[in-house]
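(Fold this chain)
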Amino acid sequence: MERDREHDALRTILAQDETRDRELVPIRHYRMAASAWNYFRGAAAVMAADLAAHPDSGLTVQLAGDAHVLNFGLWATPERNLSFDLRDFDETLPGPFEWDVKRFAASIMLAARDSEVGSLRAAEAVSAGLRAYCRGIRRYATMPELDIWYDALHVDQLVDYFEPADRDRVSVHIERGRERRTSRGAFARLTEMADGRPRITADPPIRTTLSEAAQADLVDQLLAGYRLTLQEDRRILFDRFTEVDAVRQVVGVGSVGMRVYLVLLEGRTGTDPLFLQAKQAGPAIYEAYAEPSRHTSHGERVIRGKRLVQSATDIFAGWGSMNGNDFYVRQFRDMKIIPTTALIAPRLVEFAAACGATLAKAHARTGDATAIAGYIGKGGRFIASVGEFATVYADQTERDHAQLVDAIESGAVSSRPA
């Protein structure tokens, strides 16, 4: 892999810092340096450059863009059911289907290594994810378009992927998350009363209080523009809420340094909280290698891609801009249940299979499932080839991670904990 490279991984990482809040960039470096797995999560731009340097199938789908195993999770549909789907679309853009598949496969291998899963079990998990993807694509190749569009992986179907002995434990974890991860749950944990009104609790630099002037800009620019991107019925619902507080957030690994705001709104009764998260959107990492986005706003690019890929999307998903920066907006913790490597490691084979099937659904919605199925064939060679790639790329990522660690230790790259 390394001798074929046309870029330096460290320079690619540092080039992204130019568009970020300089005060927060050292936190990003610190988080990425914590492990090769964390580095991989933050280094999607590095992998994009590597993938683009090699021939591709030419079979285009709407890429999720960062299809690693922790970017799959449970969502509340508009009907308040839980659906398992992709969850991160910062890098979404049309591109070759195998770019998503290869990032997915490499992520399984790195997550396994991070959790000290044995090499045989790790390889089994990679193969399980890829087999599920191939089976899914072949199934979608025979289905009517409307059936593909309406298909979804509901929570009960996700639980069925696990061994019978694990299903009760998984169900209990999901049910606890469903109850806690709501706007009401966030209100109970993240707010306090001050001067007679609720305020989001500051926890610098994770959550930093905004001045009144900054909050006014957020309402007058970002939320005002965002409101117009909602469907009419949802805009009427949104108008029943009033902004009462907002803070700046630090989130994720690769996203650190991008401007992110957590906004608290209240309904007319005063006991009906709604949390929205507004996240800065820049150019997709694939735009340098594929066709540029057809959308004038990167926030719109993210939300349009999200709606294309997901079976059901948050009713408050939209976009706006503020002070020359694009943003996308979504509900915060709307029954979102996000896995951790510690949780999935003992069940990595089963979880990888659920993710592979979900990725196939995403690609069938926006690509030609028949053509992809034809390209994959029976699947054996495809699975073996991508499985080998996953191992080679995991090794490369470990070297890239060591390069970042060395640069931090030498003082060439700044780093500090949050």
In short: Residues 380-409 form the longest helix (30 residues). Residues 296 and 326 are 10 Å apart (CA to CA).
